[in-house]
Amino acid sequence: MIFEKGLGRTLETYEKWWGGDLERPLISAVLTGLESDREPSKYEYEGQKNFGNIEITPEEIVDSFDYRLSQMEFLGDSYPFFNCDFSGPGIVAAFLGADVGVSTGNIWFSPKEDLPIEEIHLEYIEDNFWLNRMKAVMSEAKQRWGKSVVIGMPDLGGVMDVLATFRGTENLLIDLYESPDEVKRLVNDIKVLWQRYFDEFAPYLTDGFHADWGGILSKSSTYMMQSDFCFMLSPDMFREFALEELTDTAAFLDRASYHLDGVGQIAFIEDLIKTAKMDVIQWVPGDGQYATQDWFDLYCQVLDLGAHLQIMYDDDDLSAMSKLIDHYGTGKNITRTFLYRNVSERGHVQGLLSRFGVS
User: Fold this and answer.
1) Across the chain, which distance is largest between two alpha carbons, in Å?
2) Residue 288's pLDDT band (cuts 50, 70, 90)
3) Per residue in 302-314, pLDDT tens?
4) CATH architecture for segment(s) 35-71+79-208
């Protein structure tokens, strides 16, 4: 791989961004398709498909990603990143005993049996296969790469979303009305377990570097939280069933981000920033909505409330980012998810970075 800037200098840039001292946006660009100088791995790296296939060893998973890294060049604010979202979204459900489905090539979770909510009791499982497999993969990665590659926190999922896995989305919606105390009991139980898993994985991260599937590098603990189930809740129900947990989990972290997924969650922005103290809001419009670059007013709302903003899938010219910079006269507190382009587009990518002042 080609990474001339180095992790130390890159981390300094991210720390300036977190502190509001970087007067430009963070833009991470990765060129792929470079000619590798090592032998191909036994398996092609296919993320969830690799992790879900228990015939593929942790060593083979890491080696397959190492081969992918050898075909990459990291520009701008990007860095070599082993994104552990290959677990599938919400792997905590598997740690707590949910079945793991892999037949589609992607990982999904389902309960072993359909139980009434009052009969659901979730506890830590010491010898859980998926928990130990994830630790084994991360351990192998850390041993192999040391401080040359950032190992990210697994995609643990949102607490309400994990509960929805065990109860079913429709049933859980009914439970909010018929069994609110049981819902709150399980939300609290899962929150405690979630934090335990986070602490257990922390030693497997690259020493001195913290990141999650959102890719925003940090010196101290950070996580991209979410609660996609809340898309279907009113603001009052969100405050009753989800906000306290999100506030507690955000306080558990040094830096908390929130994956705001879908128009149904727009009403929660002020609660998330002012009450839960989310440092970053990452916006995803959802299927059937305007493109990511067409939400200027929402982006301004996030920034005006004092949070940082991560834009997902802005177009090739980063038009949403450009419009915000024109409006505020600065690109501070703004970033975009990693931009991956083939090496044949090097000129376009370098020109883009130069236009935004990214060296």
Assistant:
1) 61
2) low
3) 999 999 999 987 7
4) Alpha-Beta Barrel (3.20)
**Mean model confidence pLDDT for the chain:** 95
List the chain domain ranges.
Answer: 35-71+79-208, 220-337
User: Residues 315, 322: contact at Cβ < 8 Å?
Assistant: no
- Sign (positive/negative) of CA torsion 154, 241, 191, 255? positive
Would you state the pLDDT for residue 287?
67
- Nearest-angstrom CA–CA distance, 132 and 122: 18
Distance CA 159, CA 36 (A): 41
Q: In CATH terms, are 35-71+79-208 and 220-337 the same topology?
A: yes
Greater model confidence, 285 or 219: 219
**Contact between 144 and 62 (Cβ < 8 Å):** yes
- Tokens standing for 51? 């992790």
Instruction: List b or e across 114-127, with b for residues whose CB sees 16 or more CB atoms inside 10 angstroms.
Output: eeebeebebeeeee
Q: Which residues of 295-317 are buried (b: 16+ CB within 10 A; e: fewer)?
A: beebbebbbeeebbbbbeebeee
Q: What is the mean pLDDT of residues 202-215?
A: 97
Distances (CA, A) of 105 to 32, 56, 156: 23, 14, 19
Between CA 63 and CA 256 the distance in angstroms is: 31
Cβ atoms of 148 and 80 within 8 Å: the answer is: yes
C-alpha to C-alpha distance for 47 and 235, rounded to whole angstroms: 36
* Burial group, residue 231, by CB count within 10 angstroms (0-12, 13-18, 19+): middle
What the block records as the tokens of 276 is 């839960």
Q: Which CATH class is domain 220-337?
A: alpha beta
Model pLDDT for residues 145-175, shown as the tens digit of each residue: 999 999 999 999 999 999 999 999 999 999 9
